[in-house]
Amino acid sequence: MSDLTLPTHVLTEIDSPVRETRLTGVDELGRIAGGNDLAMAAAARNALERLTQDDSRSVSVAATTALERTAIRVRPERVDFGQIAPGTPRVVADVLVDGPPLALASSTVAVSGPGLRAMLTGRQLRILWQPRSEWLDGSVTVRGPAGWAEVRVTGQLGVAAPVSRSAVEAQLRTVNTTVNHAAFGPSRVTVLPAAPPRRRLGGIVLIAAVTALVVLGGAGVAWALIGRSGNEQPAAVAGPLPTSAPVVETTAPAPAVTLSKEPLAARRIASLAKPTVVGTVKVGAEPEGVAVAPDGRTVYVANQNSKVLSIVDTATNKVTPLTLRNTPRFVAVSRDSKQVYVSMYDTVLRGSGVAVIDAVGRTVERYLDTGNMPYALSVGPDGNVWVPIHGEGRVQVFSAGDQKPEADITVPNNPHAVGFSGDLMRAFTANHESNLVAVIDMRTDKLLDTVPVSKSPHSIAVSPDGRRAMVVSYQTNTVDVIDTVTLKRTGPLPVGKGAQCVAFAPDGKHAYTVDEAAGTITVLDGQTGKVTSTVKVGRSPRTIGVAADGRFAYVANGEDNTISVLRVGE
């Protein structure tokens, strides 16, 4: 695609010897690449690809970030049909396919898994499984002009005995057992023979397989079907899409951005057993909560010794302060990166609430009244905001746009944090003074069960596959690992002194605890909870936020008034 398609002023900007002018051109290209004119969008994307090799680090990072926002995306990235009763003819799940017009143009679908089929109509990807074997561990790949995205699909054919309650819960979350094939019009299906048994494969082989399979349907509908022998091992699963890499203040030069020739949307970030600190950023007074926007462009830091939220641009390292009505404590970001939610309280009995912030305009939209001492709030898989009310032993759930909670759930004292298993439709809270983890049914907003854990559980995180919850306990310097299906606990397992926050890497292979008294981050094996390394950060670290692409993580250092930037994946 020729650059001549692009506006003259944009061509002038990106060819300028002045870095700031080229950055302006990158912004223009990003806007054009997301537009409806596909020819111009393709030209803009080609120009962005060239600019990822720019001599200026800030220009190359900005171009990489803009380019990755043109990629195709799927939500959710995992579908689990759970345990299916014998004799079930088919089960169905719907997945949203998102991205700018160019990403979705001429999209095709490829499927790997016995009895698995998929059909794309507009932005809806319908996945159907006709059980042929005792298990399913497959994938559905949607490929377009701007890369590809993958949905991992799992399921199991049960025995004649009654299906367990946990399996039914998983099935109800993702399965719609009614399907009308005629409603989707005619289709052409390409069937490939079953592949021979092989070892678990990486991205290069999977890309080759996808390239070999092209299936097209009529009127914008794509179908795919592939058989696979029962002895074949499942292929590797694609991780979250890459986002941005920050420019950070360091005593040594910041590491250069290494750009792979692999398509950006197909690139996968593997978490490191030994992360490294690559820089620090000065923020407000006594930072506590930290969160990274899902698009990776912004980090939000709640400074609890002021009434300021620090907004950090990861591409330029610029920090913008936003003054709030009350003292910010913790922060969460909506799944589309457009809104930010900040829990606030000045003292135990004063100033409680949640600030709702327009992320684009960087202004406060409104304040929500909450119970006493709202703590580490989270955005659920349904987009609702879950606010643990530390001082009152309950969790309040707010829908988008609501001023009052749509649910008020009683849990043991005192809830500190919330994690989610979307497949199981379960939420989990770490309850500090009760030494319990509460298990909540997200369909009914009722307490299902509690799990005893070590003393003073401060924080909880659920693995990306939804199957493990890791709970960190402040007084015992340990973590406990909970199976989210069986609710069986493993642990306690030792971590650093004064551990008070935990988070998973997006690939699930590692987890991180923030050890306030030790001034370290403890890196754990994401499956077993065993320590793989420790990393020294600033004084009195409080919380950690991990970027969705898994490349960087950000740690709030309470006594240094900084955030440490860690390279946690590559």
UniProtKB/TrEMBL annotation:
<dbReference type="InterPro" id="IPR015943">
    <property type="entry name" value="WD40/YVTN_repeat-like_dom_sf"/>
</dbReference>
<keyword id="KW-0472">Membrane</keyword>
<feature type="transmembrane region" description="Helical">
    <location>
        <begin position="204"/>
        <end position="226"/>
    </location>
</feature>
<dbReference type="InterPro" id="IPR011048">
    <property type="entry name" value="Haem_d1_sf"/>
</dbReference>
<dbReference type="InterPro" id="IPR019405">
    <property type="entry name" value="Lactonase_7-beta_prop"/>
</dbReference>
<dbReference type="Pfam" id="PF10282">
    <property type="entry name" value="Lactonase"/>
</dbReference>
<keyword id="KW-0812">Transmembrane</keyword>
<dbReference type="InterPro" id="IPR051200">
    <property type="entry name" value="Host-pathogen_enzymatic-act"/>
</dbReference>
<protein>
    <recommendedName>
        <fullName>YVTN family beta-propeller protein</fullName>
    </recommendedName>
</protein>
<dbReference type="InterPro" id="IPR011964">
    <property type="entry name" value="YVTN_b-propeller_repeat"/>
</dbReference>
<keyword id="KW-1133">Transmembrane helix</keyword>
